[in-house]
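Support request from a user on the community tier.

User writes: "When I paste my structure tokens into the form, the page sometimes reloads and wipes my input. The last time it worked, I copied everything first. Here is what I submitted, just in case something in the input itself triggers the reload:"
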């Protein structure tokens, strides 16, 4: 199985930046798409961004386009989410996710593995 270890969450002021990282271990020889979901307080978990293993394709939820950037290391074992121009509405628990289909869309019901979640809080 695959284990996902997240880091980089924290407290930041509006307009600031954070960089989340997720390191995959285990059966990383498989071609997994990797991505990020988030769950704001009192709301359902939602898709944020994803990156495929093959082809280097990236996908974003509309509300984060132009502000967030997803990337994978050359090894493809680590995925990052660079979050710029953060807004209070971005406050949520962010979850790393892996989907062995390696194709978009990545959905909650298609995710095979989840990280433990990391809190991102954006103050006004």
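"...and here is what came back when it finally went through:"
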């Amino acid at each position: 199985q695959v284990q996902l270890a997240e880091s980089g969450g924290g407290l930041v002021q509006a307009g600031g930046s954070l960089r989340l990282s997720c390191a995959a271990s285990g059966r990383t020889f498989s071609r997994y798409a990797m991505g990020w979901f988030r769950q704001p307080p009192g709301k359902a978990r939602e898709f944020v961004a994803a990156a495929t293993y093959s082809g280097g394709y990236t996908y974003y939820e509309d509300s984060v386009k132009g502000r967030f950037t997803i990337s994978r290391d050359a090894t493809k074992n680590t995925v990052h989410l660079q979050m710029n121009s953060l807004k209070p509405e971005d406050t949520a628990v962010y979850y790393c996710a892996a989907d062995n289909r390696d194709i978009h869309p990545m959905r909650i019901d298609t995710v095979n593995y989840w990280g433990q979640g990391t809190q991102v809080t954006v103050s006004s």
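Agent notes: The reload is a front-end session timeout and is unrelated to the input. The chain has a mean pLDDT of 95. The two ends are 40 Å apart (CA to CA). Escalated to web team.
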